[in-house]
Amino acid sequence: MDDVIPSGRKILREDGGVLMWQEYVDGPHKGARPLLRYFVGQLGEPSKSFTTPHDAFEHFQNLTGAPSSRPPSPSPKPRRRIVQSN
After folding, report:
1. CA–CA separation, 26 vs 36, rounded Å?
2. What share of the chain is helix, strand, coil (3-state, %, to 5)?
3. Is the pTM of this model over 0.85?
4. pLDDT of 58-69, one tens digit each?
5. Which residue ranges of the chain lie beneath pLDDT 70?
6. In the sheet that 48-50 helps form, which strands lie side by side, from edge to edge?
7. Potential cystine with 50: which of 25, 32, 38, 64 (Cβ 3.0-4.6 Å)?
């Protein structure tokens, strides 16, 4: 993987020397729209290409040991009900 980040590349995850990113690549047919592809690679090594983000993330997890989901966020503080007396 190159140390230079080309334009159009969006870094999705990074853990240690492993990156997961997305970028548009040329389609197989002339004049076709560019295709969105996902890549996972370690610094100084060739990257692996994926067509779906979940396959790319699974490979990223295998390389890094990243958790499968984010920890749950704490619930918001409950609002107190104000009772007005007449």
Report:
1. 9
2. 15, 30, 55
3. no
4. 999 999 988 776
5. 1-7, 69-86
6. 10-15, 18-25, 35-42, 48-50
7. 38
Tokens 């690549």 belong to residue: 25
**Of 35, 40, 57, residue with least CA distance to 1:** 40
Pull the structure tokens for residue 31. 């004049």
Question: Can you list the alpha helix ranges (DSSP code H) found in the chain?
Answer: 53-64
Q: Which two tokens stand for residue 11?
A: 């870094």
| Cα dist from 45 to 22, 41, 58, whole Å | 17, 7, 18
- The two three-digit tokens of residue 22, written as one number: 């997305």
| Residue 47 in tokens | 């990257």
